Amino acid sequence: METNKSLDPRVQRLNIGAQNGEANIETHLVTWEVFHQEKKGKQAVHVGIVHASSPELALVYAKEVYGRRGKTTNLWVVKTSDIFTFTPEDEDVFNTAPEKLYREAGYYKVRDRIEAFQKRNKETA
Question: CATH assignment of 3-124, given 3.30.1840.10, 3.10.20.520, 2.40.30.10, 3.60.40.10?
Fold first, then answer.
């Protein structure tokens, strides 16, 4: 296997790959999902993907691509292959819960009450 010495000081500093920042050019690149955390305590938000051969290198790429666009407290990378989800055909599994419209702001029709209250106040004034 042929190896190349990386010229990137970040790769050398993290000692990614073989000794002294050498990266194997035959290594298969893996897709990593990148999550960005703007402030401590805020939830991480999915911002995109990077392709890298290791999680350490994926973090370096994520920092360069997504960490410099705004305030960043932390970045997470997760292999795309490690994310499991329901298929669109399994949509009916979520139909077991009854509708809970009271959780939606549109459920509360307060505009009519506010207008009636304002009308009463105008009449009494």
Answer: 3.10.20.520
